[in-house]
User: Which sequence fits this backbone?
C-alpha cells in the first residue's frame, strides 16, 4: 500500500487528487495533506475537504510536520511552494510527483538538481490524451513544419494564474525541438497593433481565460490550401488526478531521477 501526501489539499486539484486516491484504494491511500495556515480547511479531515467522507487524516499546515507519514508527495500548488516541499522531501529521501506549472527555467534546474537525490515525476499535464498528443505533434511538425504556420491556442478557467499554460509551453518545446528551433527564439506570445507580416519560423501562442473551462489545447498547422488542427479537451480534472496517482504508485521505490509521464505511461519507445 503506497502512502500518499497531497500538498494543497483544499485546492481544485488537491480535492480531486484525494478522490482519485480513493478510487485506487486497493493500491494507495491518503495519509497526509496540507493547506496554508490561513485556509478555512486547515485542520479539517482531508476526506471531508474533498467530499469523500472522513478518512481519519487531518490536514496539516506544515509538510515538515508530517514527513514521516507518507511515501510519495503529490504537489499541485504553486511554484515557490512546490520548491519548498521538494527540498523538504529531498532532505528525507521521499519521492515527489510535481503537477504544478509556471516554473522559471532556473526553478526547473533546481528540480533537476533535487532529482539527483530522490525520484521525481514532473509533467505539466498528467492526462494520457495530452501526452499522446505530444507524440502526434512531433510527427506533424517533422512532416509539415517548414511549410506551415504553427499556432498554439489554449483556454482555461478564470482562476488560472500562469499563462501560457504549462501544457501549451510543452507543446511549443516539442514542436520547436522537432524542427531544430529554439522555443525561446521563435515564440510569439500574443499579438497587437500594426507590425510585420508573420515570420514562418515563429510559433504563436494565444491564451483564453474564461469561466470554468477545465483545459483546452489546440495546435494549428496552417499551410496553403489546408490546415491540420490537433485538439485536446479535458472535461474533468479527474483525468489529471488519476494520471498523477498512477505516477505516484509507479514512482514509489524507484531510484532517484527526474522521470516524465512518458516513463509512467510507457510512451518512451522510439
Ligand atoms: N500537471 C497537470 O496535469 C495539472 C497541473 N495543474 C497545475 O496545478 C497547480 C494548481 O492548480 P489548481 O488546483 O487549479 O489551483 P488551486 O489554486 O485551486 O490550488 C492550489 C492550492 O494550493 C494551496 N497552496 C499554495 N501554497 C501552499 C503551501 N505552501 N502549502 C499548502 N497549500 C498551498 C493554495 O492555497 P491558496 O488558494 O490559499 O493560495 C490552493 O488551495 C497549478 O500550477 C496548475 O497549473 C492543474 C491541473 C492539471
Ligand atoms: O491550471 C489548470 O487548470 C491546468 N494547468 C495545466 C497547465 O498549465 O498546462 C494543465 C491543465 O491544462 C489544467
Assistant:
Amino acid at each position: 500500500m503506497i502512502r500518499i501526501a497531497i500538498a494543497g489539499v483544499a485546492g481544485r486539484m488537491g480535492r480531486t487528487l484525494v478522490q482519485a486516491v480513493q478510487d485506487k484504494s486497493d493500491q494507495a491511500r491518503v495519509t497526509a495533506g496540507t493547506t496554508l495556515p490561513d485556509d478555512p480547511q486547515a485542520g479539517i479531515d482531508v476526506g471531508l475537504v474533498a467530499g469523500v467522507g472522513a478518512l481519519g487524516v487531518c490536514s496539516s499546515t506544515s509538510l515538515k510536520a508530517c514527513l514521516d507519514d507518507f511515501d510519495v508527495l503529490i504537489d499541485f500548488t504553486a511554484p515557490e511552494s512546490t520548491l519548498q516541499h521538494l527540498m523538504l522531501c529531498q532532505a528525507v529521501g521521499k519521492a515527489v510527483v510535481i503537477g504544478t506549472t509556471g516554473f522559471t527555467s532556473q526553478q526547473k534546474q533546481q528540480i533537476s538538481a533535487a532529482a539527483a537525490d530522490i525520484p521525481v515525476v514532473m509533467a505539466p499535464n498528467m492526462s494520457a490524451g495530452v501526452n499522446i498528443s505530444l507524440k502526434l505533434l512531433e510527427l506533424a511538425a517533422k512532416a509539415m513544419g517548414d511549410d506551415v504556420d504553427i499556432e498554439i491556442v489554449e483556454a482555461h478557467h478564470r482562476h488560472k494564474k500562469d499563462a501560457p499554460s504549462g501544457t501549451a509551453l510543452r507543446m511549443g518545446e516539442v514542436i520547436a525541438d522537432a524542427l531544430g528551433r529554439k522555443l525561446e527564439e521563435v515564440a510569439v506570445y500574443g499579438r497587437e497593433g500594426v507590425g510585420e507580416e508573420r515570420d514562418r519560423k515563429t510559433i504563436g501562442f494565444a491564451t483564453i481565460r474564461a469561466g470554468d473551462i477545465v483545459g483546452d489545447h489546440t495546435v494549428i498547422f496552417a499551410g496553403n490550401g489546408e490546415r491540420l488542427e490537433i485538439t485536446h479537451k479535458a472535461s474533468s480534472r479527474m483525468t489529471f488526478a488519476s494520471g498523477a496517482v498512477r505516477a505516484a504508485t509507479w514512482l514509489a521505490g524507484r531510484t532517484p531521477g527526474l522521470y516524465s509521464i512518458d516513463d509512467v505511461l510507457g510512451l518512451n519507445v522510439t
In short: The chain has two domains: 2-122+237-265, 128-234. Residues 128-234 form a domain with the Dihydrodipicolinate Reductase; domain 2 fold (CATH 3.30.360.10). The chain has nine helices and eleven strands.
